[in-house]
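RESIDUES AND SHAPES:
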Amino acid sequence: MYKNTVTHYVTKVLVDIMFYGGIVCVATVPWLTKYLCFLLDKPANSQFYYITSAILFASGICAVFILLNLKQMFQTLLGGNPFVEKNISAFRRMAAACGVISFIFTIKCFLLFSLATVIIVLVFAIGALFCLTLKDIFKQAMYYKEEHDWTV
């Protein structure tokens, strides 16, 4: 039987910290955006404030959703059976969330362009492709596992 290592537990704790920290960040988006407006010397009721708040809030919800799926996947990993349909669905949902973030920041390129925005679009588009690839790998591994279980 596969033995869980310290790395598994450390990674799980880091994902948990990021998940709960992400919830706090999403909940404080309006205040953080007002502070950003203050730093950039823009009015707090400007178009910049509303666009930035909407982008950060929507992408933050998607990021927390990705972390929620990772938390659920770690439960199956630490339980010793990661090749289950639940994880395949989680990869599909994470790919969709990455795609949404990529789409949101593509729209932002037309509203408030920056080179960092282009990089974010590319990173999350690659993340979506990565999740879809892992989904197919897990699906194939689950198929092989089921075949092996029937053979034995």
